[in-house]
């Protein structure tokens, strides 16, 4: 009957025999005490042990974790042309942070259709037009802060709940309509060059962060929106 070994050491095997078996079994079995070195379980006989399924140990590498990985951070890697080669295999990623690189083209992300959260702050994105945002039908959180955007043309997000566009050079935000952004509740537009929020209709918006200099905010914000406004 199997049981637990109270104490043992790898010295139970002879030096030659132990070395050979360590190499063969991956240092998992003490063949003198017939015990598993992982769980400290002792087996009734050598025959029983040889007939039992052997424990397999898989190395922790890209190939073994790729299907189960949900979060990937590649920040400050100076990525630009290398982006596709770095992440093309991680199609099951849910959370992706690519901040502080030199990325201007997000098209290598197109296969990542399961994304829920995407952060591409402090990069070189000049336009959202032609970017694969339409592929991210499940995306709920998006931050493109501190890039080089001047408008939001091309921006889509049927599932977006939080959108952060602070620190760009955006002058107008027309196109933010409830039909395309029905779930949007938090919008950050601080440190841009906005003069008006004309063309802005988001009735479900709850928090809006922005600065518009030289205007009366209460006169230019859309009356249809219900939100908590924070000015900086």
TrEMBL record:
This is Leucine rich repeat containing 23. Residues 1-24 are annotated as: Disordered. InterPro entries: Leu-rich_rpt, LRR_dom_sf, SDS22/Internalin_LRR. It comes from Xiphophorus couchianus (Monterrey platyfish). Keywords: Leucine-rich repeat, Repeat. PROSITE patterns: LRR (PS51450).
């Amino acid at each position: 009957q199997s049981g637990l070994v109270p104490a043992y050491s790898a010295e139970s095997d002879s030096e030659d025999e132990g070395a050979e078996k360590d190499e063969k079994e991956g240092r998992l079995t003490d063949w003198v005490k017939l015990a598993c070195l992982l769980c400290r379980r002792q087996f009734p006989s050598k025959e029983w042990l040889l007939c039992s399924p052997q424990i397999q140990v898989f190395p922790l590498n890209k190939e073994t974790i790729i299907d189960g990985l949900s979060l990937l951070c590649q920040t400050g890697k100076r990525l630009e042309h290398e982006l596709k080669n770095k992440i093309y295999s991680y199609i099951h990623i849910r959370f992706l942070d690519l901040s502080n690189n030199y990325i201007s083209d997000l098209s290598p992300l197109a296969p990542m259709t399961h994304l829920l959260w995407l952060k591409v702050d402090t990069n070189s994105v000049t336009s959202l037009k032609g970017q694969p945002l339409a592929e991210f039908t499940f995306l709920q959180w998006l931050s493109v802060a501190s890039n080089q955007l001047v408008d939001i043309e091309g921006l889509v997000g049927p599932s977006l709940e939080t959108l952060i566009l602070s620190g760009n050079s955006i002058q107008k935000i027309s196109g933010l309509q409830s039909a395309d952004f029905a779930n949007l509740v938090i919008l950050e537009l601080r440190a841009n060059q906005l003069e008006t929020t004309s063309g802005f209709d988001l009735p479900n918006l709850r928090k809006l962060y922005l600065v518009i200099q030289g205007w009366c905010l209460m006169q230019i914000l859309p009356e249809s929106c219900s939100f908590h406004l924070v000015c900086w």
